[in-house]
Amino acid sequence: MILVVDHDPQMLEQASRILNRDRQVFLASSAEQALEMVGRLGFSVVLVDLELAGAHELIQMLHDAHPDLLFIGVNGAMKASMRMADSKRLGVVEFLEKPITPEWKPIVERVRASHGSH
């Protein structure tokens, strides 16, 4: 299952439409909601908007609690190289640039498929 965490309702709607496969995509609009959902459900991949309030803390907490969980960082502008570097240190394995497009799906599926090898 995939969790998408973003504060933008339009982004969440697009993510659900583009990435959803057999109802395996769940949506969270805050770090708090994401933490609660990961505690209840078993996800393989979490897409996190790196501009979300508490994004890095969320990734750190989830990584500590679920070391096998894979993270994809989502950013509105890839110019934030420091943020990307920090995210890589926290375990982000891939980065995607907004807005979401159908080209995201194979990337997310590749990361999702690699979950079993971790």
Based on helices, strands and strand pairing, what is the structural class? alpha/beta
**Rg (CA only):** 13 Å
Shape: globular
Distance between the termini: 16 Å
What layout of secondary structure does this protein have?
Layout (H helix, E strand, L loop, with lengths): L1 E4 L3 H11 L5 E4 L2 H10 L4 E5 L5 H11 L4 E6 L5 H10 L1 E6 L6 H11 L4
Parallel strand pairs: 1-2, 1-3, 3-4, 4-5
Helix pairs in contact: 2-3
Features:
5 strands; alpha/beta; 5 helices; 118 residues; five-stranded parallel beta sheet
Can you offer a commentary on this structure?
- This protein has helices at residues 9-19, 31-40, 55-65, 81-90, 104-114; strands spanning 2-5, 25-28, 45-49, 70-75, 92-97.
- The protein has 118 residues and is an alpha/beta fold.
- The chain has a domain at 28-42 and 49-97.
- The protein has a five-stranded parallel β-sheet with strand order 2-1-3-4-5, with helices on both faces.
- Helix 3 (55-65) links the parallel strand 3 and strand 4 (70-75).
- Helix 2 (31-40) runs parallel beside helix 3.
- It is globular and about 30 Å long.
The gist of it:
Helices cover 45% and strands 21% of the residues. By secondary structure, it is of the alpha/beta class.
